[in-house]
Structures are given as C-alpha cells and as structure tokens.
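Pasting two entries for a bug report.
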Amino acid sequence: MKVLVIGASGQIGAWTVKDLVDHYDAEIIAADLSLERVKKLAQQVGKENVTPIKLDATDPGAVRAAGKGVDVIHNSAWYELNIKIMPVAIDLGVHYSDLGGFYDHTLEQLKYDKKAKDAGVTCVLGMGSSPGITNVCGAAGARKLDSVRDISIYCSWGTKVKSDNAAFPTYSIRTVLDEITQEPGIVENGKKKKVPALSGMTEVLMPDPAGKVVAYYVKHSEPATMADFIGKGTKNVSFRIGFPANDFTTFKTLAQLGFGSTEQINVGGFSTSPKDFITAMYLKSVEASREAGQSVEDFDYFRIDVDGTKDDKDARVTYYVKTWNDLEKGLPSARDTSVPPSIVADWLVKGKIDRRGTLPPEACIEPEPFFRELAKRKILVEEEMQQTKTYY
C-alpha cells in the first residue's frame, strides 16, 4: 500500500504516518510545505518506508505529480485545502480521505459524488475523531433504533491533574479559532440552519475526570451529512464542545485579538496574516513538544447520544469514545484523530470499503470492525442503551 500524506509534519499527520508504517508497513510519501520537518519525521519513524517531499498543496500540478502511482491520498493539512486536493485525487483515479471540510467545504465536496463514482474511487470526507469516529457512532446507534429523532455530539479534553495552565490543543489552533468565530451549522426540525457561534450552551456529563462540562455549538462537519445519510427520520443533529475553562479563556482572547483573521498586516517590513503567524507558532510548538516528549496525562473524550424509538418506546443509545496519551510510548491522546485515516486507507486498498463516491464516514464505514481496530490502539468505544418501559 502506498499513501501520500499531505501535511505530514503536523500534530495529526505525523502520527497518521507512524500508524500506517507501524500497523500496515505502508510505503509513505510524506508531503509538507517544510521539507526540513518531514525529513525529521522520516528520521523519527526510522524506516525506509517514508519518503519526505516538499509540497505546496495549493498547486494542483504539484499534487498531481506527487500523487501519481499511490493508492490513497490523505489530506491532514488545513481543511481549506480539501476542496483543492480531492478533485486531483479523483482525476488521478486515487482514493482520498481528509479530516473534515468544516461544514461548508463538506457540502461542496459532496457535489463531486458523480465524478468520484465515474472514476471508480471513494473519497471519505471527515475521517478523524470528530468528524469521523463520531459519525460512525451515530450510524451505529441508528442501526439499533427503529427511528431517530436527535443526534447530539459532545467533545471535551483536559488533563488528569487540574492546572491553571491552558492545555496544548489536541488539534490545529487554526481550526480552533475558526470553530469559535464562525457560525455553526446544525440540523433543527429536519432543516439545516446556521446559528451564532458559541450559542446553544448546555451542561453535559462526560466520563471522569472531565465530569460535568459546559458545552457550546461550534462549527463542525457532522451536521452537514448525518441526517441525510443516516436517515430514519433524523430531525436534529448538533455538535458541541465543552472547552476546559482555561483553554476557553485563552482561545477567546486570541480570537478577540484578531488571530483568526486572514487579512494581511505589515510588521517590520514583512507581510503576513495573524492566522498564518499563529499557525507557524503552533507548528513550531508541536515540533518542540514532539522532541521533548510529554510529561502530563491528558485525555480526549467524546459523547454521542442517539435518541429515537425502539418497539414504539423512547430509547437512547450513547457512545463514549475515550483516549489517553501514553507517556511511556510517547503516544498522544490526539491519536484518536490520526488513526482513523490509517485504518480507512487499509480498508480502501483491501476492498473493505467498496461503495464509491464522495461519502461521509457514516455512509461507508462498518461500525463494529472499525471500533475493534480503534481498540488495538487503545482508542476505546463504549456503548450504552436505555429504553423506556411503562406499566400503563
């Protein structure tokens, strides 16, 4: 199996490369804007399977040249690039996956469905932890119900030991800033709609040590697809994040200072945008933390509630997805985002995913075998079912 991983030096991309090599002995073309960073990654992996290359993913010709002869192209770089990279993969006749199109881009990607089918390829849209694992959990829960009313998704993260310091983001700071500043999409009463950023505040009980968290609507891909592809009468789909308090304060401050802006500013004779500047600082911190190793136990949790009916009675299926970092092996809790693309690449090549087109995970991933693959990497999925009984 040969895979082109774009954004391979990032916090998520690097671990996708390692998982592909460790579990599937895959041949990897590790592509990034920084050749130096992917060369370091290749050294860290320590096998000849990884070929580092410099790649500007905004250049379709460069992506085409890099993707010739591979089995799968996976984009682990910024979500804005999905809509640029995916059409190249389709033209090449190569399977494709990414970490999510952030709602609006996902809707645009779905329009390429016929082209992908005609090319005989599968493009899995949003194949990380969330979107990704969360979508598959929603589909698994729906299978156990006769009808579905609500799918509610919650995310939280943090450390085992409470601290006054903000935790290191388990995914791109660039995405975090977009999440808390752009209008989220939800499905309400069967219709897609936009709502104000950080609205929909609610309390939700997550597994310990997270406990009860306050969660808000943020922009995410799941509401763009789940009602349509899961069906069963699904009326409402939402995604909320329960930010740790210190992290939330930090992110809001950065947003208020304008670090989510793409407007070019001049500093000391050099022109850049606040978003590009903080992205560069984030990548530098990621590299430094990878080299230094981790010293704090941290977790990444998701809760997915699927509400509906079973045998004419109200029922709920709840999934908890739990991931901890591994201090001894140096594995991050963020592997819940980096591992799914690796599994999907293997399944695409082996024909375990045989549906063609541009598809979200809930439309093409078989839940239980997928959950068992996650468990091999200590990404734990737990299922609970509650059903109302009446005696009148």
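Entry 2 (this is the one that rendered wrong in the viewer):
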Amino acid sequence: MNILIKNACAILPEGYDNCCAVAIRNGEIAAVGTVPADFRADKTIDAKGKLLTPGFIDAHTHVHMTALRNRADDLPFTAWLFENVMPMEDTLTTQDAYWSVQLAIMELLMSGATCFLDMHMFPGTLGRATVDAGMRAVLSRGLTGGADDREGGARRIREAKQDMERFKDEKLLTFMVGPHAAYTCDEAYLKEVAALADELGVGIHTHLSESEDEQKTIRERYGCTPAEFYDRCGILRKNTVCAHCVQLNDSDMALLAARGTSVAHNAASNMKLGNGFADVPALMAHGVNVCLGTDSAASNNSLSMLREMELVSLIHKGTHRNATAASASEVFDMATKNGAKAVGLGDRVGEIKPGLRADLALFDMSSVGFFPIGDPKAALCYSSAGLRADTVLADGRVLLEHGEFKTIDAERVKFEIEKLDKRLSGKDLKK
C-alpha cells in the first residue's frame, strides 16, 4: 500500500518542517518534503495540526509480564524479584503470555512506540502475539544456566534457536540471544552464549549492574565487577545491549565504550526498585550509545515511552544539578536513532528519511497540556503528561488510527487479562 502523510509538523534529521509531506511506498519512506510526480497514494493521512515523529524504540522490556502490573510494589529488589515476581511469572500459561503481550503492545503504541527489544520465557508465544499485532520487535529468549542447571540451560538455548527458525520469514521480527544476568549464568555458560551469538550472527541482550547486591555477588564469586566479568566471557561487544547499568564505575564505563556496547537506561524501574540512578551524563561523556527502556510493567509500572523520556530529561538535571544535562534533544535521540542503533536496526528505522522503513507516530498538537507546542522535542520530554499518540504506523501499516487499534481486539484483550487478574488475586504475595 502507498500512503501519503501531508501537512505534518515533522521532526526530521535536519530539523523541523512545519508543513511536511511523507510518501510511503510498500512500507518504505519514498520521499520527504517533495512528493514524486509519479506517486499515487492508496491512503492519504491529513496530518494538519499533528506532530510527526519517528516511532519510539523501547530498548529493554519484558512484555509477557504486563499482566503482573501493580502486584509486587514497595518491595526491596531481591524480595520483589525472587519472592514475588518470579513465582507469579512461573504460573503464567502461554495463553496468559499471549494476551499480556497484546496488552503491552497496546500501551506501547499509545505512547508512540513502534519497536521493542524483549527478554522473555515464552518461545513461540511472544513472536506469534507480536506478529498478530503487526508490531516490530527484537526478541531474546531469556537464558539462565550453569553447572547447577546444565539441562535447563541447554533447553533454553535450544528454544532460542527454534524461535529464530520458526519466525525467520517474519520481516518485522529479529533476534538476539539473552543471557539474563551475571548472577544467573556461570562463566562457562556465558562463554557458550557468546559463542552462540557468533554462530548465529546476532546480538546480545542482557542485564548488567542493576543492583548493589549484584555488584557484591559477582565480586565475591569472580573478584571483579560485573562489567569486567562480562568482558572476560566475551559478552561485551558492539551489538550488545546492557540494560540498567546503575552501578558502573568509571572504568566500567570506559570498558563499555571501548567495546561499543549500548546501554538501555531504565529510569522509572531503577528508581521504583530502589536501585538508584545510572549516570547517563557520564556514560555519554565516555561515548557510550545510550537508549531508553521501560523494563516490565511489573517494575515500572508503565510502558509509556513518553513517561520514560520525561523522567530521563528531568532526573539527571536534578542529580547533577545541571540544567543542561540530558537535554530534550539528547533524550529524543535516545528514544529513536540511538535505540535503533542499539537493537541492530539503525539502517532501517529511527529517523524520518527516504530509504528507511515507515515506523512513524502522529501526536495531536492541540492536546491540552501539550499546547502550545513551542519546541517539539522539548514538548515531548517536558509536557507530555496525558498525551497519547493519535496514529501510529509500523513498516507502513497503520496499527493505531485516531486512537483506535486496527490490528488488536482491545475488548478481547481486556476480557482475557481480567480473567488472569482474578486468578492472580487468589494468590498470596509475600510482603
């Protein structure tokens, strides 16, 4: 299908265009500004009064956990994870996961996101739910294993490879391998996973230096920081995304920069679980590619990329007492082109320019609280509370139009999640 978006206020790589046209041919941005004379649109979107942005990229999340939202709150990190979330996660069925993913995609679309990088435990289901919704995603089967769980570790690797084979023809799905963390994988297993990434030609998606407990555990086991341990195992590389990175020291940051490793900053989740603040200005000063992630709705408890952008834009100004830290322009890049680079899609999405895929979002500039818009990037970062995307396209397909989901049965999703919620409500949580 050919789509013409006209009269948009667009955020382009070279700046803002207050009356922009974008021609989309078979999912690709064919032209920006001047529409080719031979272009014939099957569908025209009049975007007058709308802000056009690249689709945002959630560079770290766990969408199957969305149904666990608001169920394990105000708890220390280890109690939250091991005593509450993991036991609840183990009760989820594949059908539970399917509807939880669909709910997550609804929320992501409403915040203008068109792609997410996910770590999961439901091979087959995550891909199917994402394909059904028409969303772009980079999937990684969560991998844990070692000497005390050789059979389980081998099974998870098999499942990861089977997932890649099962969905190899789905153009909106790509894959990474996903070693969970330095404290859930031993050295031999991590080296095996690194070799697997080389064999398959894919990137690595993992958690790193999220908590003080992790720092202590890895230093006691291996005599080094988690970042140094990962480097020893071959995990740090240019196509690796490390989520969190709250507890990095200066030499850790220099190491990530030298390896070309990206960091997915999860501001809301890190604050809520009491783990602290990743030093984003220092990471950027070292030359690390920083992108944004929501983490799961079990820890955030939101999947809104707009909310994440707002928090990141404000937090580092306050913690560094520097009003220029993490500027709106820098944070916008984190949510778009930096995210695309991190997840291995920098040549396909993340900006509005010819040759890239049409992953785009439109926002109503007359929305109360957003209007008057002034500087568009600043508006998205500082005055987006309550803002919802009007229309969202992924690969040139309209997934959300004037606030209506076009590929997801929203009422069915809510019905299924309500059933799951009632079942979970019958279980005691340890607080």
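Dev reply: Rendering is fixed now. As a check, the viewer should reflect this: The chain has two domains: 2-54+351-405, 56-342.
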